[in-house]
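Quick note —
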Amino acid sequence: MEGVRVLVVDDNAVNRRVVHEQVVALGLRNGTAASGSEAMEILRHAHELGDPYQIVLLDDEMPEMDGESVAREIKADATLAAAVLVMLTSGDRWQERERLGDLGFSACLTRPVRQSQLMNALALAWSRATGGREPVALPSSGTAVKEAHTLRARVLVAEDNIVNQALAVRMLERLGCRVDVAADGLEVLQMVRLAPYDAVFMDCEMPEMDGYQATAALRSDASSRAIPVIALTAHAMVGERERCLAAGMDDYIAKPVRRADLERVLARLAPREAPAPGVPSPSNRDDRGPLTAPVDPLALSALREAARRTGGTVVHDLCDAFQRKARDCVQSLRRADEAGQRRLVRESTQVLRTAAERLGARFLAWLCLELEEMDEQAPAERSRTVIDLLECELARVGAQLRH
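Predicted structure written out below.
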């Protein structure tokens, strides 16, 4: 997908800038528009110049001309109709997926959009537009068993506990899997629309929507009905496995998760065929851009070299201290923002920005600066959006530091 041209259309300057940076960081060529009418002008001018936009990211709620209206106009214009459309929304529009598909949308992303989600959505939509492939279901019991480490299975881990999440991800990656994570059932439903997963490892007890409810939703939809779901549960009691199977899950693993259990389940997965030449793989992570990597590569290299020289203890302690301090700052930010205390918001943001800059977490620092300089008359939704993005980016920074 490198070099594909993407247009971000959003009337909110902060949201537009964030997505712009994410798109550029993926190695794509990006343009922006602040309204639907401006977007149509840009699209038509680019076509006239012989360098059209191939993907358009549309905010669903814009004044005068919303995302759906822009989509209709794009698809009604023969010179622009080939563009791949992705909707950006602040609310869950899962129930409207068929209608949005009829309008020409290939994906719908709920803000705040994580870098990995955006990458997966764009890669999968582009793959479909250029002749992608469908997910593979579990083989029958008569299918030959494959060694787990040769599978390269694409799996989704649904787990709200960060420690359990990290352990599962690390074990699966060591077994050769490509792993994405979801924090609750609602996020699972969003992510299975973005990538062709070979299996979902589903924690049974999660907030918002638990594993049983998420599995029921997957089984009720024809597009996700065949995806194997493996239950992860802390209840190793008699009858628990039967309960999971009755809920529509395909297998069961008791916590704490053991490597042998994962190998047993992975051995039943059929390996995915290699993509056709020229078709991008959604799991190819690209950290070329200046803001893609949560922590600046040079800063991260210096940290790792220091850890090597010192045995790691001091550096690990510093990283742990940063993450604890950052989490406390985000909590303080959220409380102050909800109370309308702008002075406290700025003070907490300055503390976090300083720490992020010293660490080399540039995108985190940039988000802090956006919040720090935000006008006091700005809508409350705008500051909440930036704080949500801060929290997501902090999780990315923490994940990179742990590795």
